[in-house]
């Protein structure tokens, strides 16, 4: 009985800690957008929206599906599960209508690639950004 209770408490705390860690949406400083709607954000990360309003191409950077940060990003900011996002990418790829986002291996690489790629968008753990990328807010 005690073991089950402690397992329940541990699982609850683990879920709470994951949800408590926020995700910052980051963009290259040359992107002029100040806010994005959740719908637009989903369109960008599902690779359906490929250009910013000024016509510049959008370069999407993501971490691997098994990354804790990627799971938090998809759940918190997109309101999706990682497998749902992967399915959207696969549909784009296999239909010949698009491509997958650019996969990076770490938050450090994410920050570097977003900072050095005009039109780039990605995500970092809350507070991990620097002066070479800027955060963008999401309106519901």
Account of the 3D structure:
The structure is a single chain. This protein has 140 residues and is α/β, with parallel strands linked by helices. It has 5 helices and 7 strands, in the order αββαβααβαβββ. It has helices at 2-20, 38-45, 68-78, 82-95, 107-116, and strands at 23-27, 35-37, 59-62, 102-103, 120-125, 134-135, 137-139. The strands form 2 sheets. A 5-stranded mixed beta sheet has the order 4-3-5-1-6. A two-stranded parallel sheet has the order 2-7. The protein is globular. Residues 10-19 have low confidence and may be disordered.
Number of helices: 5
Structural class: alpha/beta
Strand content: 15-25%
Distance between the termini: 43 Å
Report helical residue fraction.
40-55%
How many strand units? Answer: 7
On the 0-100 scale, what is the average pLDDT? 87
Gyration radius over CA: 16 Å
The multimeric state of the shown protein is single chain
Largest sheet: 5 strands, mixed
Order of helices and strands: HEEHEHHEHEEE
* Order of adjacent strands in the largest pleated sheet: 4-3-5-1-6
The stretches of 5 or more residues where confidence is low (pLDDT under 50) are 10-19
Secondary-structure map:
Blueprint: H1 2-20, E1 23-27, E2 35-37, H2 38-45, E3 59-62, H3 68-78, H4 82-95, E4 102-103, H5 107-116, E5 120-125, E6 134-135, E7 137-139
Parallel strand pairs: 2-7, 3-4, 3-5
Antiparallel strand pairs: 1-5, 1-6
């Amino acid at each position: 009985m005690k073991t089950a209770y402690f397992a329940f408490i541990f699982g609850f705390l683990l879920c709470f800690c994951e949800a408590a860690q926020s995700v910052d949406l980051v963009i290259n400083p040359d992107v002029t957008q100040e806010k994005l709607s959740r719908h637009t954000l989903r369109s960008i990360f599902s690779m359906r929206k490929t250009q910013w309003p000024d016509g510049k191409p959008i370069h999407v950077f993501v971490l691997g599906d098994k990354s804790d940060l990627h799971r938090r990003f998809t759940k918190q900011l997109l309101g999706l599960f990682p497998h749902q996002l992967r399915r959207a990418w696969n549909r784009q790829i296999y239909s010949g209508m698009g491509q997958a986002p650019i996969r990076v291996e770490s938050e450090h690489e994410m920050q570097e690639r977003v900072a050095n790629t005009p039109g780039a968008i990605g995500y970092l753990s809350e507070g991990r950004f620097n002066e070479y990328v800027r955060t963008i807010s999401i309106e519901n």
